[in-house]
Design brief:
The chain has five helices and 13 strands. With 336 residues, it is mainly β. A hairpin with an 8-residue loop joins strand 1 and strand 2.
């Protein structure tokens, strides 16, 4: 009963923010129930480096149109085209630029790993999207990031990182994420070509990341899906698929593809991988408060599958960092 009451308060508080961003288009009724499995992998190998944010992997299972969430949404007057809940597990690892040193440079980024699970709630309302995520897990040796990286490096014949003995200590993590997106059709071309703008805002609170983010994506393509674009591990990580029925009430199908570009700015209050452990002394560096990011990519989608690739340029995150970070990201989603 206590968990149910907490869940209701989180959902009510999140969607109470919706009027601040404007209402979406009129709903066309509930979407069709179903499931979706999504895998995302981010790694700096795509850029030929092995430093800073070096790897992130996440697996999420979506339940589309669960009856209890649809009932809650309808009781609270939400004009939702589609509601869904997702369950996620993931691992993230960050390292200094020089992983050959047994004693890392104190001016370089500390070793840190995170292992987490999360539950997210997604509400798609015409041109608007609202997402709420609750994350829990651990940072430190229990994250198994050291074991994972060393195992992979042995298999691929790469140098074994030497400084994991100085990584952040074990610490439980708890973080809340709220994200809002909107969608605007800027141009409709011949056939089914289109150009869309997707502005977004994101707020994170917790002992892992406390930050605000503003950004936007632009996408240009043919038969663009009726969804809300792509996201990063430092965000919702996974977004739900487009409803089986589009905003005009017609059943969607076939395949589509588009190119996209995005830009964002992050105002960072706390980042545990830079600031160090909350209650224990640990390696740390002086972080940058403002971190810009740029991404470009492409998406192909059919009625059941989506394959996306993005390349991300992430600004300097700490004062002694000599250069920006860059990494690639692959996402595969299957709806069933």
């Amino acid at each position: 009963m206590m968990c149910q009451a907490t869940l209701r308060r989180l959902l009510t508080g999140t969607l109470a923010l919706a009027p601040l961003f404007g209402a979406g288009a009129q709903s066309v009724g509930p979407a069709e129930p179903g499931w979706s499995l999504s895998v995302r992998w981010e790694n700096d190998t795509f850029g030929g480096t092995d430093r800073f944010y070096t790897d992130g992997i996440s697996l999420a299972l979506f339940r589309i149109e669960p009856g209890w969430l649809r009932s809650w949404s309808d009781r609270h007057g939400r004009a939702a085209d589609q509601v869904s809940v997702s369950f996620e597990a993931g691992q993230i690892m960050v390292t200094p630029a020089d992983t050959r040193r047994a004693v890392p440079d104190p001016m370089d980024r500390p070793y840190a790993g995170l292992l987490y699970g999360a539950v997210s709630f997604h509400f798609q309302e015409g041109r608007a999207y609202h997402g709420l995520k609750l994350i829990s897990g651990v940072v430190g040796p229990w994250s198994l990031a050291e074991d994972t990286q060393k195992w992979v490096h042995k298999r691929i014949g790469s140098g074994i990182p030497q400084g994991w003995g100085s990584q952040l200590h074990n610490e439980p993590i708890l973080n809340l994420v709220y994200e809002h997106r909107r969608k605007y059709r800027l141009w409709t071309g011949p056939g089914e070509g289109a150009l869309e703008l997707l502005p977004m805002a994101n707020l994170m609170l917790g002992n892992v990341l406390t930050q605000g983010q503003l950004g936007a994506q632009v996408r240009l393509g043919w038969r663009i899906p009726d969804d809300f674009g792509t996201t990063l591990m430092r965000g919702m990580v996974h977004l739900p698929p487009a409803p089986r029925r589009s905003s005009n009430g017609k059943r969607t199908g076939g395949w589509g593809a588009y190119l996209f570009g995005g830009i964002s700015g992050n105002l960072v209050g706390r980042n545990i991988t830079l600031d160090g452990n909350t209650w224990k002394d640990s390696p740390s560096v002086d972080k940058e408060w403002w971190v810009p990011a740029v991404e470009v990519g492409a998406v192909w989608e059919s009625s059941r599958c989506q394959l996306a690739f993005a390349y991300v340029f992430w600004g300097r995150e700490f004062e002694s960092q000599q250069d920006f970070s860059e990494f690639g990201a692959l996402t595969f989603r299957w709806r069933f």
